[in-house]
Amino acid sequence: MTFKELGLNEKLLEALSYMGFEEATPIQEQAIPKIIEGKDLLACAQTGTGKTAAFILPVLNQLTGKSNDKIKVLVVCPTRELALQIERQIQAFSYFVDLASMAVYGGGDGHDFEMQKRALSKGTDIIVATPGKLISHLNMGYVDFSQLEYLILDEADRMLDMGFYDDIQQIASHIKSKKKTLLFSATMPPKIRKLSESILIDPESISIAISKPAKGVLQAAYLTYDTQKSQLIRKLINDKPTYESIIIFTSTKKKVGEIVRSLKGNGYQVQAVSSDLAQTEREDALRKFKSKETRVIVATDVLSRGIDIKGINLVINYDVPNDAEDYIHRIGRTARADSTGVALTLINEDDMYKFYRIEQLIEAEIMKTPMPPEFGEGPEWNPKPTRGGRTNGRSKNKGRNSGGRSKGKFSRNAKGGSRRTGNTSSKNIGKGGSQKGINKRNFKK
What we know:
By secondary structure, the protein is α/β, with parallel strands linked by helices. It folds into two domains: 4-208, Rossmann fold; 217-428, P-loop containing nucleotide triphosphate hydrolases (Rossmann fold, 3-Layer(aba) Sandwich), CATH 3.40.50. The chain contains 14 helices and 16 strands. The chain has helices at 10-19, 26-36, 51-63, 80-93, 110-122, 131-138, 156-161, 165-173, 190-199, 226-238, 253-264, 279-290, 324-331, 352-362, and strands at 41-45, 73-76, 101-104, 126-129, 150-153, 180-185, 204-208, 217-223, 246-249, 270-273, 296-299, 314-317, 341-347, 367-369, 411-412, 418-419. The strands form three sheets. Strands 3-4-2-5-6-1-7 form a seven-stranded parallel β-sheet, sandwiched between helices. The protein is globular and about 65 Å long.
């Protein structure tokens, strides 16, 4: 369905035309008419499906011609990066519409604070805010939500994972106007249902492709010890010279710094994104990555949701995320908008059960690839947890070069290829391959 068929006004259609957007995605096709009809909405769709435009476009459509220097829309989202991205998209979609917007988030200086205070007290049409910073302003008593028409919660599941449940309830308690509430989430756990019941009124529900990776992602994993990971990452990057944009995800800020130092020490163009960095540093790193000045970016899960960076060829999970849903969001940075991409995960002996849970969630077995022979044997695949929480995946060879045969499910054939329930060479990752749950594709550039 085209955006014109969805009944959007001519000014929005003109902006969409300049941006090259004609066909609506499924979430946009279902959400836009319901929002225009004035319904509360509970919408679930995986990352990369166009959720942001699904709520921005109908809201802009309804606000056109209503500008009166009062806050009419509040969008709450989990991170500064996502708040800035949403605000930029609002500016693009509203290019021919007389509506103003402002992003409210922490990490700025006194000038930023004064601009936010002015927007929240004197009024601007659309506010996009992170929960913590918005509450700081609310506690000072000058925020005017008296004419708010829409409360929108984006990436709601992520906000709850980050501990913002009470903050969201507190924000909602400050809104006394008769409003419509729109809740968008990539997953629908019980805590989202609980939140929706407390703040939505007789909502319409939409659920599209819950908890499934995009079809264009070729997924594979390496069984590795931590001592082997740095060398393996360098090999994976070197083996793909045509891949211009690579993201490496890790679960801790400390590991971000360690990986960046290791790669920079070997001459790679790499930068970090984590909450330890100043906002200006994070924005500069993302700008250079988007413009291809930086080939590799290393990040925590702060970058795994909502951030729209086109043309990412490869996602490497340095470790397995604790939450199986976060895996979906990490690898969702590639293969966006019907493109293709590669997602590789490094699994140590302690992460095997977590990775097994991911396979259960996505209902597919992901190809396990042995370590290249020059790095020595990795652990055996055995996801059964032991009493201490560690898996039974063990090998006496802790990453030492042995040149011997693997004692796990993998063995090397006489020609150096890999053998596991089928013939899969580790050199083929990112260039092709097939298995249960993964479509056979050609990723050769």
